[in-house]
Amino acid sequence: MPTSTWNRHHILSLADFTPVEYDAVLQTAASFREVLSRRTKKVPTLQGQVVANLFFEPSTRTRSSFELAAKRLSADTLNFTSATSSMTKGETILDTAKTYLAMGCDIMVIRHTSAGVPNAVALEMDRLGERVSVLNAGDGQHEHPSQGLLDLFTICSLIDPLQPRLELLKDKKIAIVGDILHSRVARSNIWSLTASGAEVHLAAPPTLLPKLFAEYINDGEASGLDGRRKLFIHWHLEPALRDADFVMTLRLQKERMTAHLLPSLREYHQMFGITRSKLKWCKPNVKVLHPGPVNRGVEISSDLMDDPEFSLIQTQVTSGVAVRMALLYLIGSGKAV
Amino acid sequence: MPTSTWNRHHILSLADFTPVEYDAVLQTAASFREVLSRRTKKVPTLQGQVVANLFFEPSTRTRSSFELAAKRLSADTLNFTSATSSMTKGETILDTAKTYLAMGCDIMVIRHTSAGVPNAVALEMDRLGERVSVLNAGDGQHEHPSQGLLDLFTICSLIDPLQPRLELLKDKKIAIVGDILHSRVARSNIWSLTASGAEVHLAAPPTLLPKLFAEYINDGEASGLDGRRKLFIHWHLEPALRDADFVMTLRLQKERMTAHLLPSLREYHQMFGITRSKLKWCKPNVKVLHPGPVNRGVEISSDLMDDPEFSLIQTQVTSGVAVRMALLYLIGSGKAV
Amino acid sequence: MPTSTWNRHHILSLADFTPVEYDAVLQTAASFREVLSRRTKKVPTLQGQVVANLFFEPSTRTRSSFELAAKRLSADTLNFTSATSSMTKGETILDTAKTYLAMGCDIMVIRHTSAGVPNAVALEMDRLGERVSVLNAGDGQHEHPSQGLLDLFTICSLIDPLQPRLELLKDKKIAIVGDILHSRVARSNIWSLTASGAEVHLAAPPTLLPKLFAEYINDGEASGLDGRRKLFIHWHLEPALRDADFVMTLRLQKERMTAHLLPSLREYHQMFGITRSKLKWCKPNVKVLHPGPVNRGVEISSDLMDDPEFSLIQTQVTSGVAVRMALLYLIGSGKAV
């Protein structure tokens, strides 16, 4: 594991992540992936520590991934979901967090439908002078940093499994396709991928693009937003996919249809769904990612999703456990070993 | 524990269980029952392994039994229930299973309202060349093999606690009473009990019998269906109970009433409910089983259920943990020790 | 930990707790609080034992506290909540308890909306000659003994952190304010605090006082109910708070409003809500307790709740884990060490 010192206490956003921090996560995750390939997939690192999963928005996949990561570090876990919570009793979220703090939790993994909740909890913990760490497991349409990091780890590991590192993505072209507007996954990935020096191309219907981005677009295509981060925005799929090394599709919430942001799932699939024929625009060895769960035949064609030659979707899930072990380890032990 | 080699990778059905396999389960479970009688009821056998309980149909009893069995083998457990799942998000069941596979689960315990789901998952895992094992914890009206095995273990252990084995049931008469048509418990028990050489007598109202069976009936009673398996079907309780050694009652889903398959619970209890007076038809030391949860006063009279002289219901629950430890152990370690 | 012998097998009520028992809990909890201040907050005391949380009434806070206490004693835990239970299947509560008994649970922590359920389960377990212990985690409007004990521990620890003991409260004045009528927390606290020799003053609107108590009131104030227990009842806040050392506010269920027991939350806060100005009636170093979750601005003003100079609310939560570890330890090991 990296010998650099890890100073970050909470993981709330990738906006201010440094290259050194990205590399610390990537290298630590690589070590844990090795642990996961053993028959006994457990290390005693966080024994006696308590990781509380405070999920104010239900999620099986992410909660299970964090729970498993914590258990494999030998931490004890507590699960809180709003369905069985005292939220209905009128307590504030900060009160709930302070209750888990007072019980002696060491790390709080927080998911909430509202952007900023994990930040607010972290601020309050710091104000109180408490050592507890907060890990954002997805907040509204804001960020989902562990997803961004696992996507990064998945891509970098494909290029160099033994030493995944940020610089491997320099000059790669990566397309992010779909509902950019509502996607916290897209936000976190834009921060990490542009930080790596990769060219990031967003493709979405105008109704599913942030207004800020939409204004940058001229004739449906915009050039880099600033000198350092190479971000391009497209209203059509083809320019985003042309010669791309990696394509990330985003989950389409079916609620978008009822909000009149999309005419139909069929039309969306025709224009932005990833299929074999559209992949021909990309580099020959292009790989496709999706944060899951997938709407088969909408964001991606069903056969492509299951084709290990192209799909990294299962690898992402496996990476997720290794990356979350790395995050819990780095903030739990306070430093990389 | 048995020295024979265990080759079965998934446990989906008892239809093709061999006598050697039945005996391996019975003997392994007997060893674990001994462990459960100690103060520290835990063994390190599956340390570092992950058992995921994927319950697409809610069940407290069976889920807790599997969870406890896994914890007593020192495995880590993950619970998934459809109520808090991403099923509502449109993911397929195979996708969910593959997600848990990719997280690194070693054994998936699957319950689903539809018959065949555990088989479909197991087939897919094998097709992918994955080592993960699938254990059917009840699928629709198909099978519930761990229930069948725990019932078998309960009965055999009563005859010989130290060496429970299949041959002990040869020539015993066992009645299975109630809603045979909808019962996965009945299906699994019919396979195991007829395999033992016992005479199995089913008793149910015609509306709660499978059509296939109903056709075999002449004047409300049928003889053995084939030369080897001794299965008899009755429209009335008395011939099934006459000189029976064991009586298994099945849970009656109250939904059957609204489906017009039964006139009333009271009439059902009068005709097929097990009471002290009806037990006089059986052998004097007859024992009664029920998979639980019991509708008191419907399938069985309330006082009989609580009478340890007749009722094996609590013993079944205890057997359940030992048998599930045995199953997890046998498929988890790949061989009996 | 105390060297006295612990003989109580179930913890159902504080009505018959002896001073020796109170002191055993206080001293054992003090030992465990020391464990909780270590980095590795775990002891192997209950390894291999199973603690089942049977919560027929949902509660995140209390369930998490018991779960964490059990895990820190290295016990395995099983969670049962009625939402995902077979309660809908028509099983009785005793049947559910017996199922968990038969699975091999060593301690059952039971919460239920009806008073007396934990007692009924304990009686049945004793009748069956079973060694399993029952711990009442709140039953209807009856009792919540672990809350009463953690409040006692919180107060006594403030006076003498190293040797919290019952006699420290002799001649202290403690006010309990709010919905006494519906509060199981008040009931348990009245038993423990009056047992300590403290003067206990209840203050509530007449509609939220038990009828029995209301009859003792003359002109809105009553004197001690019997020679030994010093209990006083008031219809107004001021006489209860005058020179008080501790003020316990109770959670106000908002349902009380719809039941026409209260005119409005605002009026309730004005008359019985704890604020800085009302605290001036008390001793200068008065402390405020609340069992949580708090309706901010109703039972207590929001700024007071967050002021560590006055509020013990977070300390209560921390005490809760230590006290519940003590209870599980005392009934789990059968004796104090």
From TrEMBL, chains A, B, C:
Swiss-Prot/TrEMBL keywords: Pyrimidine biosynthesis, Transferase
Gene3D superfamilies: Aspartate/ornithine carbamoyltransferase
InterPro entries on file: Asp/Orn_carbamoyltranf_P-bd (IPR006132), Asp/Orn_carbamoylTrfase (IPR006130), Asp/Orn_carbamoylTrfase_sf (IPR036901), Asp_carbamoyltransf (IPR002082), Asp_carbamoyltransf_Asp/Orn-bd (IPR006131)
Limits of the Aspartate/ornithine carbamoyltransferase Asp/Orn-binding domain: 170-330
GO biological process terms, semicolon-separated: 'de novo' pyrimidine nucleobase biosynthetic process; 'de novo' UMP biosynthetic process; amino acid metabolic process
GO terms under cellular component: cytosol
GO molecular function: amino acid binding; aspartate carbamoyltransferase activity
EC category name: transferase
Catalytic activity: carbamoyl phosphate + L-aspartate = N-carbamoyl-L-aspartate + phosphate + H(+)
Entry binding sites for L-aspartate: 89, 184, 251
Residues that bind carbamoyl phosphate: 61-62, 111, 144, 147, 292-293
EC number: 2.1.3.2
Pfam family name, one: OTCace
Pathway(s) this gene product operates in, as recorded in its UniProt entry: Pyrimidine metabolism; UMP biosynthesis via de novo pathway; (S)-dihydroorotate from bicarbonate: step 2/3
Residues of the Aspartate/ornithine carbamoyltransferase carbamoyl-P binding domain: 10-155
Family: Belongs to the aspartate/ornithine carbamoyltransferase superfamily. ATCase family.
Function in brief: Catalyzes the condensation of carbamoyl phosphate and aspartate to form carbamoyl aspartate and inorganic phosphate, the committed step in the de novo pyrimidine nucleotide biosynthesis pathway.
Subunit structure: Heterododecamer (2C3:3R2) of six catalytic PyrB chains organized as two trimers (C3), and six regulatory PyrI chains organized as three dimers (R2).
HAMAP family on file: Asp_carb_tr (MF_00001)
Name of this protein: Aspartate carbamoyltransferase
Originating species: Dulcicalothrix desertica PCC 7102
